Input
Amino acid sequence: MDIADWRKQIDDIDRELVALLNRRAQAAHEIGKIKRGAGMPIYEPDSEHTVFVNATNANHGPLPDLDLTRIYERIMDIMRKIQQEEIAPIEDPAIHDTQLDSDVND
Output
């Protein structure tokens, strides 16, 4: 395969990753609904630790476990944010002034 073939393969893989990440985000959203109804906390360190262990156990390289864990840490951060938005929706930022206060920056 030449570089163009490899890049096409990466593009195909990226589309699969996007679909999988969106499925995961939908699942996190649904878990957020359950947590809201049950009054459960968003951050559950034992559950997250299990995710990291499962991911590294499934890893057969060439991605090092440490790098995979870092990727999953970021994914988990985003999934917690999704759950937080389900439990306590964030207000629409369009209704807030986003300009910096000119007096503060003088």
